[in-house]
Design brief:
This protein is of the alpha+beta class. It has one domain. It is built from three helices and four strands. It has a four-stranded mixed β-sheet with strand order 1-2-3-4. A hairpin with a 5-residue loop joins strand 3 and strand 4. The two termini are 18 Å apart. It binds zinc ion (ZN). The site of zinc ion has 8 residues, from loops.
């Protein structure tokens, strides 16, 4: 994704609809079921991807879901790594549903303002 590379690609801000379908259990859609430890929680940025062992781990913010990084994503294989427990992540994801149609109404922050 081009805009991520303008600054050091530590984090990215995305819309819920960019990552998952809005149907059913959202966090289940994110996680890789083939990974035994896909539901492990990493409160701080993982040093390596649990799947491909890459060190390029992005913090992912979802508009309207959580004010800050909601989960981690490998920049190489796009593996999702949870920052919060599955149930909590699901609640935050559900918060974002319906909000993404009008992002300008609730203060969109461009990725360039991340620090
Ligand atoms: Zn990976």
């Amino acid at each position: 994704m081009g805009e991520v590379n303008i600054t050091f690609p530590n984090n990215k801000l995305i819309m819920l609809e960019d990552v998952i379908s809005e149907d059913g259990n959202l966090v289940e859609n994110l996680l890789d079921d083939s990974m035994e430890d896909s539901k492990d929680v990493h409160k701080t940025r993982p040093k390596k991807c649990t799947r491909c062992k890459s060190s390029k781990i992005l913090g992912v913010e979802i508009m309207g879901a959580y004010d800050g990084i909601l989960f981690w994503e490998c920049d190489i294989c796009e593996n999702t790594i949870l920052r919060f427990k599955e149930e909590l992540t699901e609640k935050y994801l559900q918060l974002a549903k319906g909000l993404w149609t009008n992002p300008s109404d609730w203060g969109y922050i461009p990725p360039s303002e991340f620090n």
